[in-house]
Write a structure and sequence with these properties.
Helix content: over 70%
Structural class: mainly alpha
Strand content: under 5%
Order of helices and strands: HHEHHEHHHHH
Shape: globular
Distance between the termini: 79 Å
Largest sheet: 2 strands, antiparallel
Number of helices: 9
Oligomer: single chain
């Protein structure tokens, strides 16, 4: 029994030593890190982004019924197009407006670029785009086809995913990005509020008419 106790104490001591020292070592060689960074460049990343408060972005998307996300996508693609880098030195096809209008498709590519940039800068990326992009699309569908409170849940998820991407982007700056309302937000917010309100009104009116 005493030997087992000694074994546990010794093993526990080694684990504590490992936890506070060896576990924190970076075993990746410089050559491997360089190869990984070159691969990230090959796939494409950006040195320019649009920075805004992640919480503010979430609230704006909720208030506008998800329509503000297209404004956010336009600002992101406009910035990314200027700072986009890849090994082949080929620019992004399509302008910011076209990419924003096709946001339900282009968000997947944008998320990939953001994640690769985070990894390149040795910052924590979001979850892989192949995981949460389908969730984002399903949340958009839930806003349309699901009943009652499920619509609000779908809208919350739809608003949360771009906000999460923005949160990871803001970490690249190394400082807090304010969430306060700014004068530049007025026009985009009004336009998306009107657009979102009109779409939801038409949808609810159509649904009520079909039910009647």
């Amino acid at each position: 029994m005493e030997r087992w106790l000694d074994f546990v104490l010794v093993f526990g001591g080694f684990y504590v030593l490992y936890f506070f020292t060896l576990r924190r070592w970076d075993y990746t060689t410089e050559a491997k890190r360089k190869a990984d960074r070159e691969e990230l460049k090959k796939q494409g990343l950006s040195n320019a982004y649009h920075f805004t408060g992640a919480t503010k972005l979430f609230i704006y998307n909720l208030l506008t019924g998800g329509m503000y996300v297209f404004c956010w996508l336009y600002k992101q693609w406009k910035a990314v197009a200027k700072g986009y880098l890849n090994a082949a030195k080929t620019p992004l096809a399509g302008g910011a407006i076209l990419r924003a209008l096709g946001g339900l498709i282009t968000l997947y590519q944008l998320a990939g670029i953001i994640n690769r940039t985070c990894v390149y800068m040795r910052k924590t990326p979001c979850m892989p785009a192949w995981f949460y992009y389908p969730v984002w699309l399903l949340s958009a569908a839930a806003c349309v086809v699901m009943p009652g409170w499920y619509k609000l849940l779908g809208l919350a998820v739809f608003a949360a995913i771009p906000a999460r991407l923005q949160y990871r982007l803001n970490a690249l700056t190394g400082k807090d990005v304010p969430n306060r309302f700014q004068g530049a937000d007025i026009i985009p917010l009004i336009i998306t509020l009107l657009a979102g309100g009109a779409l939801w009104f038409l949808y609810l009116t159509k649904t009520a008419f079909i039910t009647f």
